[in-house]
Design a protein that fits this description.
Elements (H helix, E strand, L loop, with lengths): L17 H13 L4 H18 L9 H11 L3 E2 L5 E2 L4 H20 L26 H9 L4 H13 L3 H4 L7 E2 L4 E6 L4 E6 L2 H22 L11 E3 L3 E9 L2 E7 L3 E6 L3 H11 L9 H33 L4 H8 L3 H12 L43 H9 L11
Antiparallel strand pairs: 1-2, 3-4, 4-5, 6-9, 7-8
Length: about 400
């Protein structure tokens, strides 16, 4: 039944319940969106209806939308009866993005008087410095992996910078060791890609596949199949009667069972957090994105000198499958202005309070020559290069009694 069925014989609008309208909206979505997107619309709007009640559509008001989000912004019980913490911008914005289309669809089909989805705006997400691992920490993470399977998972997650949804669905048959490539599906944007295997990842996978096949032959009596998951789950764990105290809490000892190649690794993020815990690093909110973000930043820094800022960023954007360079900048925690700021502050002598000799950025290893005056008409911040005072200009201005940088109101 389409929206036309909501209009009576005489042309008058027929009153419908929100639940009926939602069913029609989901049919509309199924014609143009992926199934997982339709499920997300369904789940969010069902939660909204569970809070408001199954009203007639023409009874819906902006206050219903505002009350639901106010409910979510405090401690609340979800549809399954579980107590939940207040949502922040990371939960508020996706909920709003999935509720708005439903209300807009009802408005366009003359089921509600106004587009009440516009009553609220997106929340601004606070910027937080995300954990990024350096080369030594990544190496220590791999060397300290609890099992060969965990090491393979960490290596694959780092060297390919894949999301969890992409990594978990890779099969043995997706590897082409002759060509040195891996095929995978980017579920978030619904595209397919083929990624070359770096020499280091190739060596890790060669070692893992040999160990993997030996275990499968010993436990299942067969070799690896193309349909087997590259990073498999374990069979149910066998618990031992002995307890071990970890961080002041008793935990049951267990031994890993045989591999279950038909299923992917269940909780890959826990492999990352376990490794971070062993290194004494924070684990709250960490997971495979920690590896993905760290790999992206290391690649960006390695490319910065030869490809400059925009070129390096575009390579990383292609690796991460982001739609915009701004998303990539935010993801790996950088901006052109911040790079300019950092390079300037590392060598700036503004007041000559101490007898210091400002070192050139080129005198310190590891710093990109991103501030070279020959990089073009633009400096990294997007303004002409002449807008950025050099260290020599600042020093001369200070010596002449003039401020090197014009004062600004804080």
């Amino acid at each position: 039944m389409g929206p036309s069925a909501l209009v009576g014989v005489a042309g008058a609008r027929e009153r419908v319940r929100l639940s009926h309208a939602l069913e029609l909206f989901l049919v509309h979505c199924a014609a143009q969106h992926a199934r997982r997107t339709v499920r997300a619309y369904r789940d969010t709007n069902r939660s909204f209806l569970a809070f408001t009640g199954d009203l007639y559509a023409d009874e819906l008001r902006a206050t219903h939308v505002e009350a639901w989000f106010a409910h979510l912004r405090g401690p609340h019980v979800d549809s399954k009866g579980r107590l939940r913490d207040p949502i922040g911008a990371g939960g508020f914005n996706p909920y709003l993005a999935r509720l708005r289309p439903f209300i807009t669809w009802m408005y366009l089909n003359d089921l509600v008087d106004r587009d009440y989805g516009k009553a609220l705006r997106r929340m601004r997400r606070p910027f937080k410095v995300k954990l990024q691992l350096d080369r030594e920490q990544i190496r220590a993470l791999l060397e300290g992996a609890g099992t060969p399977r965990d090491r393979a998972l960490l290596a694959l997650g780092f060297f390919t910078a894949m999301r969890k949804s992409e990594l978990r669905t890779i099969l043995v048959g997706d590897l082409d060791l002759d060509r040195g490539t891996v095929f995978f599906h980017v579920w978030k944007s619904d595209v397919e890609d083929v990624l070359p295997l770096s020499p280091e990842l190739r060596a890790e996978l060669d070692r893992w596949l040999a160990q993997y096949e030996r275990r499968v032959r010993a436990d299942l009596g067969r070799g690896l199949l193309p349909s087997d998951h590259l990073i498999p789950a374990y069979q149910p764990r066998r618990y031992a009667p002995v307890f071990t105290v970890v961080d002041g809490q008793a935990q049951r000892n267990f031994t890993f069972g045989a591999f279950n190649p038909a299923r992917p690794a269940a909780k890959p993020s826990e492999v990352v957090t376990d490794g971070l815990r062993r290194l004494g690093l924070p684990t709250q909110g960490q997971g495979l994105h920690t590896l993905r973000r760290s790999a992206a930043r290391l690649i960006f820094d390695a490319l910065l000198e030869t490809r400059r800022y925009d070129g390096a960023l575009r390579v990383v954007q292609a690796l991460l499958h982001h739609r915009s360079m701004q998303t990539t900048e935010e993801y790996i925690g950088l901006s052109t202005e911040a790079i300019t700021r950092d390079e300037f502050l590392r060598t700036a002598v503004l007041l000559h309070l101490h007898d210091v000799d400002p070192a050139s950025p080129r005198d310190r290893p590891g710093l990109p020559d991103a501030l070279d005056s020959s990089i073009g008409e633009r400096a990294l911040s997007g303004r002409p290069a002449s807008d950025h005072p050099t260290n020599d200009e600042v020093t001369r201005s200070s010596a002449s009694g003039r401020p090197g940088v014009s004062p600004r109101r804080m």
